[in-house]
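Good morning,

Both structures are done.
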Amino acid sequence: MSLKDLADSLFDRIDHEAARPVDLTRHERGHVQRVLHGVVEVAGFHEALSDEVITFDGGASGLALDLVPGRAGVVLLRDPLGLRPGQGARRTGRVASVPVGEALLGRVVDPLGVPLDDGPALSSARLSPIEVPAPPIMDRAPVIRPLQTGIKAVDALVPIGRGQRELIVGDRQTGKTAVAIDTILNQVGSGVISVYCAIGQRGDATARVIARLRKAGAMDNCVVVVAGGEEPAGLQYIAPYAATSIAESFMRAGRDVLIVYDDLTRHARAYRELSLLLRRPPGREAYPGDIFYLHSRLLERATQLCDAAGGGSLTALPIIETQAQNLAAYIPTNLISITDGQVYLSPDLARRGQMPAVDVGRSVSRVGGKAQLAAFRAVAGPLKLAYAQFEELESFARFGAKLDEDTRAQLARGRAVREALKQDEGAPIPVAQQIALLLAVSEGLLDGVALAQFGPVANVVMTAVADLPAAQEIARGLPLEGDRRAVILVAIRAALDEVRDGHA
């Protein structure tokens, strides 16, 4: 090759390379100043974004949570992996995201979408930011459809609608998680997708919940997001937001979704720990000043969308734990003011064996009553009044006062209502059978049943109406009146007559 040919080839190569687009990506770098327990202070960042992912030399990563000029407080999401002062840090320009979509159904993942089960990696799932704005007002619709929990005390007296935010609150060991899990189990076959978010829970407790869901066949339409108590506080902090993004992806596709946060008390404690390490000013109970906003922006994402926005719904059941029945503590009062009602579980009722331990007097649903089935409304009104009167009379009767016949009848009716509201854990009851049992109680058909025999007799009543066309009609929303009411009462009375004849 001549010198001229070599020069022409060299210039052609230069022209070819010059024509290629140049990818100049600007990466702002900083260095680690301090490493604390789960928090790193990084100097040198001037344009970092809130919740931006920061990577460190050595493989660790975190979120930029505290931003001041020239410095950023970064919350670690994984083990620090030998992170120490002086190491380099780099902005990525992207916010924390989680995989979403149908690929997550039946899976157990952490808040970053990393599988915790034996399934394959979620490489094909699309990503969604863990924090997005709540749906605007114009995209929302009224809550008019019920979400059945399968729990008599809730469906009848504290009804929940699709798109509602209903708080589950109570002391330790009162059955809060059991109520939420039974609600998930009751969605099997209903088309509702469930998302269970475990925050700061023990590993064995979460494993038992997952085993229950698998045994009942609920995992096929369920996603479990886990940030255990042994995980860094940063991972626990983002867990409910990641779980909500997963749930929202189904809601945006027009599906009905139920999400359970178990529990937000531990979430608040994780955020308090991070805030104190970031040297933010502590407020009441040492929580930072934005603790209310922490949960309000989370729960505002639960809603019923209008038809133009897809018509999907996201129902939220946040769980919080109280101490010594103190509902006036900081986090409980915050959550009570944010949500649309609460199911209060009383430790006194739990000690007396009244399970689920729903305190009807302290529980309220500000939205779900409009979504309640017409048949439920027909029996729940008189039932709630009779139960409230019974509780007052029972406390009065303990003093040994002489009671007239009407008062004794009210006490008998109240005891029947209390027994009817008892229910075994993990055994959700279909709507029609719930209504039939409560109808029998409100009509006084079970007033004379001995308390020891009430459970078996109640099962007989519910079995008697299970296959009636009238019962299926009221389960579809038709009112409990006319021939339907008469047919159901005839079946109940016939079943009770058989029970009495069998004991005669």
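Second structure follows.
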Amino acid sequence: MGRVMMGVAAGVAVAACAVATVVVGRRVRSRRKWKRVVGVLRELEEACETTVGRLRQVVDAMAVEMHAGLASEGGSKLKMLLTFVDNLPTGIEKGNCYALDLGGTNFRVLRVKLGGQRSSILARDVERQPIPQHLMTSTSGDLFDFIASSLLQFVEKEENGSESSSIGRRELGFTFSFPVKQTSVSSGLLIKWTKGFAIEDMVGKDVVECLQQALTRKGLDMRVAALVNDTVGTLALGHYHDADTVAAVIIGTGTNACYMERTDAIIKCQGLLTASGGMVVNMEWGNFWSSHLPRTSYDVDLDVDSPNPNDQGFEKMISGMYLGDIVRRVILRMSQESDIFGPVSSTLLMPFILRTPLVAAMHEDDSPELTEVARIMKDIVEMPDVPLKVRKLIVKVCDVVTRRAARLAAAGIVGILKKIGRDGSGGITSGRSRSDFKMRRTVVAIEGGLYTSYRMFREYLHEALIEILGEDIAKHVILTVTEDGSGIGAALLAASHSSNNVDSVQLL
């Protein structure tokens, strides 16, 4: 009997050991899987590192590339395009001015009433119109006749039948968000169509002349006074509200920047004279590149898969169009390394399924159970059973990618300030020390949903600005949000470049 009991006990012990071995084995495997996933995060953190030293290298690289782009055509990844806008709105503008904003499958017409004082917009009227599909591939005459007819109806309705003789000639600012080679403040040749447009007879033509002819055919007494892009419009609007505004940045779905440059610094256009001694330069900074940018394997893969590989490198690291897809690619890699996410979702393989607003929602989820993260992973990515600890990991991925983007955007802004001597150093070629340089109040106008709607992005950008510049200098740099530079800004530029003003830009 004793032997039987001993045998039973031994059997139980063996079974218990076997169970324990299985349990321990599972725990070991689970830890290994978790370690692999955490390893992906650590690798990402190291690759995205943006120390102050590295950011200052990006600042220097941006300033150097700006110099190169101003020195010669094709001398830099930065195009540094001349806008021929040499004077910005100051507040003396008075009366009604108009804007046409054509940037996609819709266009807007605006009427802005100015009060003759700085930051004095008395009234604003806006109408949005869809462009019929057939006109996007028709002729330039058909497209602009349609737009001119809409403008005429808008003007007649807004002016309530007033005598045109008492109104005088109307001035129009034209925001045209397609690739254009600008030849004056009110003329530019279409390089190519994008966004679904394919009107072949217009490529190489002056877009302002096409519009102006259509306005004449419709009997509308209106002059296109300024051809601008949305970034230049943002600078105009910022300067109208605050005379210390020297640059504008758009950080939204895409990104770009422009600033006021001294005419004598634009070496590639010798003999350029302006009444103000300056000109707004459209940087097209989305195409900036430097070896100092912290690029990851996810950035490389995204670039290869994009319609424009080796192009817009800076934009692909900092703009709202791409941040969501970088996060998606990291989560996909994690889910392939381990099954702690559950089965790999086929939806997660779809590019751009995870948009940046969803990343912002997950990043800023402060609920104890991260319920918003769980909802997005279930409803959008179709991964319904993501554990809490994994949801925390996803939030961390959002944080790393967003922080890198915001800090690089801050470095880009400081690069502009360094080029024009507003970073406290006296400029890129100055030999003065920070101690003997008096910092002037400097305002940068900013538009774009990534900055205005994503709190963590905004906070990281401000934090980096202070780290790069130092607190003593940073307190003189103000980032001001503007709204509707492509509309109101264009109308303001029409007013400041009205036919009452003599052409103030000359090429000798």
